[in-house]
Amino acid sequence: MPDPRLKILVLSTFDGTNANVIRDFLFSFKVHSRHEYYYIFDCRLLDEETDFSPFDVILIFWSVYLLGPDIYQSVRERIRKTSALKVLFLQDEYSDVRPMNRVMSELGVQVMFTCIGERDHEVFYPKALIPSLQAVYPVIPGYVPAYLERVKVVDRVSRPLDIGYRSRAVPYYLGDLGQEKRIVAERFAAISRDDGFVSDISVRERDRVYGQRWLDFLAASRCVLGSASGASVVDFSGEIRRNCERYLGLHPEATYEEVKQRFFAEVDWKVVIDTVSPRLFEAAAFHCTLIQHEGEYAGILQPERHYIRVRRDYSNIQDVVERVKDAAYCREIASNAHRDLIASGTYSYRAFVARFDRALAAHTGPPARRRNVSQFRFYAQNFVWHDQAIIPYRDRFAILPSRKLAGALVRRGLSKLPRERFGAVGSRLIENPGEFFVKAYVSTRIGLRVPALRALMWRYFMDEALRRRIGYHELMNDLLKLDIVRRAQTRILRTRQPFTMSLAFDAESGVVMLTSSGPSDEDTETMRNGSAPPGLHEALRGGRVKLIIWDHCVLSRQIVYVPFGRGWVTVGLGMGGVHRFDALTELARRHPEEAASILVPILAGRVSEDQ
Question: What is the pTM of this model?
Answer without folding.
Answer: 0.88
